[in-house]
Specification:
SIR2/SIRT2 'Small Domain'; Rossmann fold; alpha/beta; single chain; 3-stranded antiparallel beta sheet
């Protein structure tokens, strides 16, 4: 069974109604996103940070996976599929994908500020000041903030290196280190980039660019891959 690795970005979640908060001017309540999503922001005003992520978490409970999410899950019938996502939602899991690696954390999880290995599923959508881990320290969003290391990037790099097919969906490939993953794919394997703003890169061998939004592009590609595998 061929190993098919998929990297997804904000574009696939946007079609489910998830606001990226980078739309337009990249502001949230007149704060730049970096001002509410960094260790410095947490130290300066943890309530503001909690408000931001509570808002995002509440929105996540109001949306559902879209056709693209379900189509990627269907690929598991013919391929060994590994999803690597930059998104912090769980829409891939809701759609049925069984192997999902989150690069930037998970919105429905929280972790200890004292011990990063203590990660918990949050009940409901609201995390409050005073919500403590068993060790007695404040819980924080289980999110990789600006200025923090991306702990799963080496795992993702290995997955891409071992892929037989690599697909990139709904990402500008401007956010590093995730943007560098395309460079780790073998020059011999087929690669697909699905994004309405995608620009062909002649330096990447065997790359097919599908300049469509996620739903249309993914449905088109999945149909092609399933036909070829059959």
């Amino acid at each position: 069974m061929k190993r098919l690795v998929v990297l997804t970005g904000a574009g696939i979640s946007a079609e489910s109604g998830i606001k990226t908060f980078r739309d337009a001017d990249g502001l949230w309540n007149n704060y730049r996103i970096e001002e509410v999503a960094s260790p410095v922001a947490w130290a300066r005003d943890p309530q503001l940070v909690l408000d931001f992520y509570n808002m995002r978490r509440k929105q996540l409970y109001e949306v559902e996976p879209n056709v693209a999410h379900f189509a990627l899950a269907d690929l598991e019938n013919e391929f060994d599929v590994q999803i690597i996502t930059q998104n912090v939602d769980d829409l891939h899991e809701q759609a049925g994908s069984s192997k999902v690696l989150h690069l930037h954390g998970e919105l429905k999880k929280v972790r200890s500020t004292e011990d990063p290995s203590l990660v918990f599923k949050l009940q409901g959508w609201e995390l409050k000041l005073g919500d403590l881990c068993p060790k007695g320290s404040q819980l924080r969003p289980h999110i990789v903030w600006f200025g923090e290391e991306v702990p799963n990037i080496m795992i993702a790099t290995t997955m891409v290196r071992d892929a037989d097919i690599f697909i990139v969906i709904g990402t500008s490939l401007k956010v590093y280190p995730a943007a560098g993953l395309l460079g780790y794919a073998s020059s011999q394997i087929p690669k697909y980039l699905i994004d309405p703003q995608a620009v062909p890169d002649s330096a990447v061998m065997n790359l097919t660019v599908i300049s469509e939004k996620a739903v249309k592009g993914v449905v088109e590609l999945v149909k092609k891959l399933m036909t070829e595998s059959g």
